[in-house]
C-alpha cells in the first residue's frame, strides 16, 4: 500500500501564484479599469489638492504677517502710552512743587505784618 505524501511541493504553488498574479493583471488591463476620463479626473483631483495646500500655506503666511503687524502696533501703543504717562507724572510733580512754594509764600505774607498792607 502506498502512503500519500504529506510533503507540499512549494515550487509548484509559487509558480501557480505567479501565474495567478499575471492573469489578474492581464484581466485588469483588458477591463481598462482607468479609462482616459477617469485618469484625467484623478490628475485633476491631485492638482486641486496641491492648489489647496498652496492656498492654505499662503493664507497661513499672510495670517502670521498680519498678526506680527498687530502685535508690533500694540507694542508701539504701549510704549507711547508709557511715555505720555511719564510726561504727565513729571508735570504733576513740578506742579506740586510750585503749589508748595506758593503755600510757603502765602504763609510768609500772612505772618509778616509789613507785607499785609
From TrEMBL:
The chain crosses the membrane at residues 55-79. Keywords: Membrane, Transmembrane, Transmembrane helix. It holds the Pfam family DUF4577. This is Leucine rich single-pass membrane protein 1.
Amino acid at each position: 500500500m502506498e502512503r500519500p505524501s504529506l510533503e507540499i511541493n512549494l515550487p509548484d504553488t509559487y509558480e501557480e501564484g505567479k501565474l495567478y498574479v499575471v492573469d489578474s493583471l492581464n484581466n485588469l488591463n483588458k477591463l481598462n479599469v482607468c479609462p482616459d476620463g477617469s485618469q484625467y479626473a484623478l490628475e485633476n483631483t491631485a492638482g486641486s489638492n496641491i492648489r489647496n495646500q498652496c492656498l492654505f500655506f499662503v493664507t497661513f503666511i499672510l495670517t502670521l504677517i498680519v498678526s506680527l503687524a498687530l502685535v508690533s502696533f500694540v507694542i508701539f501703543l504701549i510704549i507711547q502710552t508709557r511715555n505720555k504717562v511719564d510726561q504727565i507724572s513729571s508735570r504733576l510733580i513740578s506742579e506740586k512743587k510750585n503749589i508748595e512754594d506758593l503755600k510757603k509764600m502765602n504763609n510768609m505774607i500772612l505772618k509778616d505784618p509789613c507785607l499785609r498792607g
